[in-house]
Design a protein that fits this description.
44% of the residues lie in helices and 15% in strands. It is of the alpha/beta class. Strand 5, helix 5 (117-128) and strand 6 (133-139) form a beta-alpha-beta unit. The two termini are 34 Å apart. Bound molecules: NADP nicotinamide-adenine-dinucleotide phosphate. NADP nicotinamide-adenine-dinucleotide phosphate (NAP) binds at residues 7, 9-13, 34-35, 38, 53-55, 74-78, 85, 104, 139, 141-142, 145, 173. NADP nicotinamide-adenine-dinucleotide phosphate (NAP) binds next to helix 1.
């Protein structure tokens, strides 16, 4: 079985490729990368590294998928372009005769108000009608998203949030990677996996974890969305990015990232990584 991973030089993709090599051997793994020069470590381990830019056309991408049985399509990070890019990849997979595609979506994609949801849902809907077997890996938030809170708190001693009482069931990237590997290497698959950490933490829990890591006091600075936006613009974010960040906190307040169905720990056969462990770096 040959398994290919897109965006393989990204943080999540790197975990997935390394775990696949450990489990199956390098000869079963194809790393699809935008920039092959960034993938020298994979090539040195014996992985077949192929150029794969989501902005290419279907024929170009289809040729790069020759001989691939299963594909992990990791969502890109060029906001606003991703739905179109992912559709091209799905068309290419179908044209190349790939038997199974797993797509990294977002937790609760069918009803989440998270600003990233639209592009994920569009991709899910396109994949569902493509005529290829598929799974949606609806990933919750990464623990590592909060490493920036540690850096900021060293100066400010606060965690700034407009998420109110909202909770986040985050897990480490390595956990989500292990789940992807389980699904890719399994014969029995679900269509939808809602993947999240075992524990949904509050903003106070986040502040406590950050305080423990920096060894100093950290308080929650709870503000409303308008004040949060104003503060972010004051820190130098442009309006669109400030709206995006505030939109995420509004979605967290609504509970969109708080689900704890336990599917991630079930898939990986162990508890998910606690937030503080990832924040210690
Ligand atoms: N669940 C969460 O908390 C969370 C947080 C942030 C992002 N995400 C989503 O999850 C994805 C994976 O997370 P991550 O941490 O691995 O993100 P990351 O480190 O930013 O990696 C993004 C990857 O997408 C690749 N990429 C971007 N545009 C591309 C294109 N046009 N063609 C081919 N590859 C392209 C990048 O290629 P290069 O290596 O060449 O740059 C990179 O490998 C992200 O892209 C984003 O969609 C999820």
């Amino acid at each position: 079985m040959t398994i290919a991973v897109t965006a393989a030089t990204g943080a999540l993709g790197t975990h997935v490729v390394n775990q696949l090599i450990d489990q199956l051997g390098a000869e079963s793994v194809v790393a699809l990368v935008r920039n092959p020069q960034k993938a020298s470590a994979f090539a040195e381990r014996g992985v077949d590294v192929r150029p794969f830019d989501y902005s290419s056309d279907v024929d170009t991408l289809s040729a790069q998928l020759a001989g691939v049985d299963s594909l992990l399509l990791i969502s890109g990070n060029e906001l606003g372009q991703r739905a179109a890019q992912h559709k091209t990849v799905i068309d290419a997979a179908k044209q190349a005769g790939v038997a199974f595609v797993a797509y990294t979506s977002v937790l609760n994609a069918d009803h989440s108000t998270n600003p990233v949801t639209g592009e994920h849902l569009a991709t899910e809907q396109y994949l569902a009608q493509a005529g290829v077997a598929y799974s949606f890996l609806r990933n919750g938030w990464y623990n590592e998203n909060y490493l920036s809170s540690v850096d900021t708190a060293r100066q400010s001693h606060v965690v700034l949030t407009s998420a109110g009482d909202g909770r986040v069931a985050s897990a480490a990237r390595a956990d989500y990677a292990a789940a992807a590997v389980t699904v890719l290497t399994s014969e029995q698959r679900e269509v939808v996996y809602e993947l999240s950490g075992d524990t949904a933490w509050s903003q106070a829990d986040l502040a406590a974890a950050v305080a423990e890591v920096i060894g100093d006091d950290v308080a929650v600075a709870a503000v409303d969305a308008a004040a949060h936006r104003e503060a972010l613009v004051g820190f130098g974010l442009d309006n669109a990015m400030a709206d995006f960040v505030v939109g995420i906190d509004t979605s967290i307040e609504a509970g969109d990232l708080a689900s704890t169905p336990g599917q991630l720990s079930n898939l990986i056969g162990r508890p998910t990584t606690p937030l503080i462990e990832s924040l210690r770096g």
